[in-house]
Amino acid sequence: MVPQERIRNFCIIAHIDHGKSTLSDRLLEVTGTVDKRHMKEQLLDSMDIERERGITIKLAPARMVWKGTTLNLIDTPGHIDFNYEVSRSLAAVDGAVLLVDATQGVQAQTIANLYLALEEELEIIPVLNKIDLPNADVPRRAEELMKLIGCSREDILSVSGKTGEGVTELLDRIVDRIPSPKGDAHAAPRALIFDSAYDDYKGVVAYVRIVDGTFRKRDKLQMMMTQADGEVLEIGALTPKFSPLEELETGQIGYMVTGVRDIRACRVGDTITRVDGEWAGGVHVKALEGYREVKPMVFAGIFPASGDEYSKLRDAMDRLKLNDAALMFEPEHSPALGFGFRCGFLGMLHLEILKERLSREFTIDLVVTLPSVAYHVYKNGKAEAHVIKSALDLPDPSFIDCIDEPWAKVDIISRPDDIGGIMGLCQERRGVYKNTEYLSEGRAVLHYELPLSQIIVDFNDKLKSVSSGYASMGYEVFTYREADVVKMDILVAEEAVDAFAMLVYREDVERVGRRVLDVLKDEIPQAQFVIKLQAAIGGKVVASERISAMRKDVTGDLYGGDVTRKMKLLEKQKKGKKKMLAMGVGKVHIPSEAYLKVLKR
Question: Which of 269, 266, 268 is nearest to 289 (CA)?
């Protein structure tokens, strides 16, 4: 049994690509948790997609021992789309290592994640990473950190996650500065579920922080939110592989194989309690506070390319929901695409990763509709807002009083030289300038207010372009404001395609319509008839294109004879095309790549 005062629970928070996973590797190596022969880069990043992109998507717990003290680490993602993973990690620990790249300095997500940690009242250990690089500027970056969190120079550690320099000092600082977990070892057992996964053989595996009491193998369990019953089939620590133990005590972080097979019964943020022995019946246990409800920012429809894969997609979504607590989805039916799901995401990268995981892990071909934000629609004479997540849900314009769209506060950190280009980009996207702050010489923070619809699709890509890759951004939705938006339909061969319906600003309809039609003209293959492409608002066509008919050589098999034979065949073909056109033309196949290309501006 490990005494509570010999336990330290902490996580590493940072902006994307500041070296969290590499530092985690060194901590595991220096503490001897993982043998050198088993070491590999990004050890805690378990998914192939994480390794390929070099980003952390899922939080990952690991237990280490350093000088007699048990250290429970949670490695967290850095991208803004996965900050819900960060907030859940912070609720399960007592301190945080704030990591800053010594070459890049404080970035937007550094500030956002720091605020999340301060809200949880965690002990912060500021650390400068990548000091081994030739362009590392330790004095200037230390100045930025001191200005940001009000610490002294002695409080800031300098480490290299790659070479291991300064890692032992960091481990000593964690033991000295981060408080031991609070909790009553003799109270009714309670554990907070901060993550979960599904195993084909074990069923639902819950990653937990033991808040009070002790859990042992074969204990009878209950999930307090869902009232589902289970049993501890296996319990233990993650080192980072599953290491079974006989029990987990107050303050420890580990895993439980719950014996639950229903994926929906084990929710992230729920409280697990024991319902056997002295705690059976009668003992009223108060549920833990759990997590704030996550609010999706981007909505898109996800449909299987083949209709008979709907049940396979439903099972896949259930499994991913268990592993990704920020994902929201509900069934949806489209006349053009069949049965699918309307999904809510935290951003475009979140959508991209989910699509990639569905196609890789479950081998499902998908069609993804245009992403949109949640608008508030006020109908005539009604004070209550009707929330719409798709252009298809928009009521008849004659019944609409006004439409409100979400606005976000955006913080952009960049070099002073790039401010002009960034301001131009924000102005182009309807941004409202607030003010500029200077973190240090050569580092500025621009504060803007922007419509969320102008940020979600490709704002970050354009920001990187105008700043040569130096700028970073963080945003937070704070209000709804009135917007003059209309529903634009895209007609292919005179039939509206639901997947392309979108809400656009009235003044931009022609420009956006032309852009979509240009993409479709390049992507849709030719047919044996002319394909009309049109963008329309109600009954008014605002842009149109044509894909010319593919010519079939009907005279290719002729050999010899009079020219009238050739003319007769051509005339017959002409009549056939005219008849096809009169019948309302044939069915046009739209490749899935076309849907994805329309997503990009």
Answer: 269
Reduced to 3 states (helix: H, G, I; strand: E, B; else coil), residue 34 is coil
Alpha helix segments (H runs only) across 165-308? 167-177
Angle between the 348-361 and 310-323 helix axes, to the nearest 10 degrees?
Answer: 120
Residue type, 170: L
Query: Chain-centre distance of CA 341, in angstroms?
Result: 17
- C-alpha–C-alpha distance, residues 316 and 364, integer Å: 9
Using left for φ > 0, alpha for ψ between -120 and 50, and beta otherwise, residue 150 falls in: left
- Tokens 């330790």 correspond to 138
Residues 6+ apart with CB under 8 A from 466: 418, 421, 422, 424, 425
Compute, in degrees rounded to 10, the torsion defined by CA atoms 213, 246, 216, 94.
Answer: 30
The answer to the question of residue 186 being in a domain is no
Per the confidence metrics, is the pTM higher than 0.90? Answer: no
For residue 212, the cross-strand partners are 190
Three-state DSSP class for residue 24: helix
Residue 203, domain member (yes or no): no
- Number of domains making up the chain: 5
Write out pLDDT tens, residues 30-54.
Answer: 888 876 666 666 555 556 665 556 6
Is 107 inside a domain boundary?
A: yes
User: Do residues 419 and 447 make contact, with C-beta atoms less than 8 angstroms apart?
Assistant: no
CA nearest neighbour of 89 among 70, 71, 76? 76
The last residue of one of the domains, among 161, 177, 193, is: 177
Helical (H) or strand (E) element with 486: strand 485-492
Q: Residue 422: which CATH number?
A: 3.30.70.240
Task: State how far the Cα of 350 lies from the Cα of 251, in Å rounded to an integer.
Answer: 32
Using an 8 Å Cβ cutoff, are 113 and 13 in contact?
Answer: yes
User: Does 295 or 418 have the greater pLDDT score?
Assistant: 418
The verdict on 322 and 444 lying in the same domain is: no
> What distance in Å separates the CA atoms of residue 73 and residue 242, rounded to the nearest whole number?
15
The tally of CA atoms less than 13 A away on the side-chain side of residue 576 is: 13
How many residues belong to the chain? Answer: 601
Token reading at 529: 């008839």
Range of the domain at 73: 4-177
For 337-372, how does the pLDDT look when each residue is reduced to its tens digit (9 = 90+)?
778 888 888 777 788 888 888 888 888 888 887 778
Whether the per-residue pLDDT at 92 is higher than 70: the answer is: yes
Say whether both 354 and 265 belong to one domain. Answer: no
Domain boundary among 344, 368, 392: 368
Q: Is residue 201 part of a domain?
A: no
Sheet containing strand 242-245, strands side by side: 229-231, 220-223, 271-274, 190-199, 203-212, 253-257, 234-238, 242-245
Residue 347 in contact with residue 81, Cβ under 8 Å? yes
- Is the separation of the CB atoms in 220 and 229 below 8 Å? yes
Q: Are residues 540 and 492 in the same domain?
A: yes
